[in-house]
Amino acid sequence: MSTKITGIAASDGIGIAKAYTLVDPDLSFEKKTVTDPQAEIDRLATARQVTVTELEEIKAKALANLGPKEAEVFDAHLAMVNDPDFIQQVEAEIKQQSCNAETAQQDVADQFAATLEAMTDNAYMQERAADVRDVTKRVLSHLLNRPLPDLALVDSPVVVVSHDLTPSDTAQLDRHFVKGILVDLGGRTSHSAIMSRTLEIPAVVGSEKATTTIQDGQTVILDGLHGVALADPDEHELTDYKKQAADFAEQKALWEQLKDQPTVSKDGQSFMLAANIGTPADLPAVLKSGAEGIGLFRSEFLYMDSDQLPSEETQFKAYKAAVEQMDGKPVVIRTMDIGGDKDLPYMQLPKEMNPFLGYRAIRISLKRQDIFRTQLRALIRASAFGDLGIMFPMIATLEELRQAKTIFNEEKTKLVEAGVKVGEKIKLGMMIEIPNAAIFADHFAKEVDFFSIGTNDLIQYTFAADRGNERVSYLYQPYHPSLLGLINHVIKAAHRHGTSVAMCGEMAGDQTAVPLLMGMGLDEFSMSATSVLKTRNLMKHLDASTLTDLAESAINDCETSDQVKALVEKLKTSQV
């Protein structure tokens, strides 16, 4: 009999494959006195050689899938494994203390890491401490014969089962082999969920018990449509889900016929559907989806995918590639949104009690103007090659917005005076993700060309609930009447001043939220590329003239999220 695990449907689709449990093994060991130190040295040499072979395989795969920049980290790991000084110290401890190889390897690694971490004036050397620990973990796994899971080595169909997925984990996912993702933590706006949609991999998040329930190698059905996973399914369940997978593939094929069609409602009202991306590597999926623009280019991934601050030229090339490939369609690039759950080891950001409420995004940019001005110059230069807009994140006050605009204008003037070609009209916008900015929207709207509502943060700040904390996940309520009222206020305030409004949070592609947002008059919906055609299909079946009343009823007549959902489902049943 199968074991059923329920969670949150995070990325559409159905995957069936063997479980690949991404859980580190127990690498604990006891210190032992040995009678044959040379045997321990030989055992360690064998473990090192296996580690080298493994790292070379991982590097080759990273090079093919991700490119040379991302593969560089494995050069550092290989250098550490083969470091003669390190090897000499480990072998000396084995001989002098007659201890087992595990003890000597760990002792010397701890000494090396501590020395590197103490180099507070050299960020590069501090980062090498992590390399020492990573390499030692891999060597210990071979000494103890407890292999580490490694996504880069996956070469057959799997459903990845993990407590959570880090950005470095998802960077190694190969969509040809990874048929599904099942994690214990997270919600629809967690990193795992967003990346699974970007990669078009079915996903269920927030399962709470996947890693304690599913064993490596078990057959798993991953249902990303309904938020369910089945371990060890029987033949009847396999047959049923294979049919559901085929039906979904047929549905996707029908949606793909809408790729080059305009986004209009049943009664002819036009809307704009854009896509969210992290890097230019995401653009092929955007073009395939038929998106009418890029509503959010998360520029921070250029910083996160590097071991140092990206240069002006590196950023310029990335931004230029995006606007050129979109061939005249608008591209909105958000300035660096680092902080919160997005850390940069080489920037040594302060450790904070409440990082989501702390030193992040525009607050860092205004404090570190050297970084901000470099990014703005790259953006302004790229504007000469297409329709580029710049968006400032985490704006809370008019003073912050005005300071950011002043710095932008200073850098633009310098470039123009130097004879650098720039775009004729660069639109400036801001994220609405802090409740104060939403409440003060009338005043902000006079200062910018557009708003983009970031619902992922706006919801967590409105309900004072960390969107990554499963214990308070019940408070993450995108359909709550109070939140809908706040969004409606932002849209109406912007329109009073001729300012357009987009939404780039995950709510923009939520099939329950879409009719409500259409009724409020949202101008642009920006979402994961995989949601674009599904949303276009929904919109073409909805009569927009009835949606204003729907939105007003949801805001004024409902008291709970469930009442709003019931209201929307009733309308969709009658129209779709």
Automatic annotation (TrEMBL):
Signal peptide boundaries: none
Catalysis: reaction(s): L-histidyl-[protein] + phosphoenolpyruvate = N(pros)-phospho-L-histidyl-[protein] + pyruvate
Pfam families on file: PEP-utilisers_N, PEP-utilizers, PEP-utilizers_C
Subcellular location: Cytoplasm
SUPFAM superfamilies: Enzyme I of the PEP:sugar phosphotransferase system HPr-binding (sub)domain (SSF47831), Phosphoenolpyruvate/pyruvate domain (SSF51621), Phosphohistidine domain (SSF52009)
Domain PEP-utilising enzyme mobile: 155-227
Record's keyword terms, sorted: Cytoplasm, Kinase, Magnesium, Metal-binding, Phosphotransferase system, Sugar transport, Transferase, Transport
Keyword Kinase assigned: yes
EC number: 2.7.3.9
GO MF entries: phosphoenolpyruvate-protein phosphotransferase activity
Entry's family note: Belongs to the PEP-utilizing enzyme family.
Function (record text): General (non sugar-specific) component of the phosphoenolpyruvate-dependent sugar phosphotransferase system (sugar PTS). This major carbohydrate active-transport system catalyzes the phosphorylation of incoming sugar substrates concomitantly with their translocation across the cell membrane. Enzyme I transfers the phosphoryl group from phosphoenolpyruvate (PEP) to the phosphoryl carrier protein (HPr).
Name of the molecule in the record: Phosphoenolpyruvate-protein phosphotransferase
Organism: Levilactobacillus tujiorum
